[in-house]
């Protein structure tokens, strides 16, 4: 076991709003305890509650999983508790945000009541539910506070946690909107393609259930080929296209429909909308 992996066993991780960690290391809070218990109890997580302030005090890594529009109310409730009970020591903690469109500057401003702390902004996508997601993350590089050794270890542990759910990439914050347009929204584009591919099979007489399985498996296999071989997708495409064969005729039809340009436009539109929401 590596030192980085072994460090995970000492963490206490909290999720506000919402494989490699033991259930007793996880703390979760939400406004509705009944719904929280229903969702997390089957996973043997027992540290469930509604007290966000207490969770921040207990945990070393805190995932902020609330809706973006709930941030003002959340920060106000924490500020009230700080004024009443005193500020928790957050020097050796990470606050990890998955709030779409909320910048690091906004997060630091809203959570200034916590004092010195390190905030990490992340953007995951939905395939992480099956361990095949991709998450990008960033932290403020121009902060006046130099991370201490404990925070650096926590940051390394966070990378391991995010990577365990697929792939994790560290980016500059100004790239997050573009990544949202590509990877955050990308699953929806792929679902559209899978549905269309299956519909094409149904039109040619393949039973729908089988067509859907064939389409999904084909997309998953093709993606795996790109990742496993390291070859450019165009090279892999050419390897399938025999001269005068069925595949090149199908590819020609896709080109006539401007598939590549349409997909690029989708990423551009989604990126611009993400910028508007920031």
TrEMBL record:
Enzyme class: oxidoreductase
Protein source organism: Anopheles albimanus
HAMAP family (alphabetical): P5C_reductase (MF_01925)
The Pyrroline-5-carboxylate reductase dimerisation domain, residue ranges: 173-277
Pathway involvement of the protein, from the record: Amino-acid biosynthesis; L-proline biosynthesis; L-proline from L-glutamate 5-semialdehyde: step 1/1
Gene3D superfamilies: NAD(P)-binding Rossmann-like Domain (3.40.50.720), ProC C-terminal domain-like (1.10.3730.10)
Protein name: Pyrroline-5-carboxylate reductase
Keyword S-adenosyl-L-methionine: no
EC number: 1.5.1.2
């Amino acid at each position: 076991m590596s030192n980085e992996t072994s460090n995970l066993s000492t963490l206490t991780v909290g999720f506000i709003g919402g494989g490699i960690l033991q259930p007793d290391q996880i703390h979760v809070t939400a406004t509705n305890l009944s719904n929280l218990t229903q969702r997390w109890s089957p996973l043997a997580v027992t540290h469930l509650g509604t007290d966000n302030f207490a969770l921040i005090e207990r945990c070393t890594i805190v995932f902020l999983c609330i809706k973006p529009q709930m941030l003002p109310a959340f920060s106000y409730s924490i500020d009230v508790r700080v004024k009443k009970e005193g500020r928790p020591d957050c020097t050796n903690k990470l606050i990890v945000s998955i709030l779409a469109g909320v910048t690091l500057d906004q997060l630091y401003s809203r959570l200034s009541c916590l004092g010195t702390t390190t905030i990490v902004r992340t953007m995951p996508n939905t395939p992480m539910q099956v361990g095949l997601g991709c998450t990008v993350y960033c932290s403020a590089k121009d902060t006046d506070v130099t991370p201490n050794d404990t925070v650096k270890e926590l940051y390394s542990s966070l990378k391991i946690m995010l990577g365990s759910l697929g792939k994790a990439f560290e980016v500059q914050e100004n790239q997050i909107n573009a990544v949202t347009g590509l990877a955050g929204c990308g699953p929806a584009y792929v679902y559209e393609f899978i549905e269309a591919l299956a519909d094409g099979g149904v039109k040619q007489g393949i039973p729908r259930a089988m067509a859907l399985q064939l389409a999904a498996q084909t997309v998953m296999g093709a993606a795996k080929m790109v990742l496993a071989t390291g070859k450019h997708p165009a090279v892999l495409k050419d390897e399938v296209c025999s001269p005068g064969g069925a595949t090149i005729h199908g590819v020609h039809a896709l080109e006539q429909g401007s598939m590549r340009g349409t997909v690029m436009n989708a990423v551009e539109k989604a990126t611009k909308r993400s910028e508007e929401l920031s």
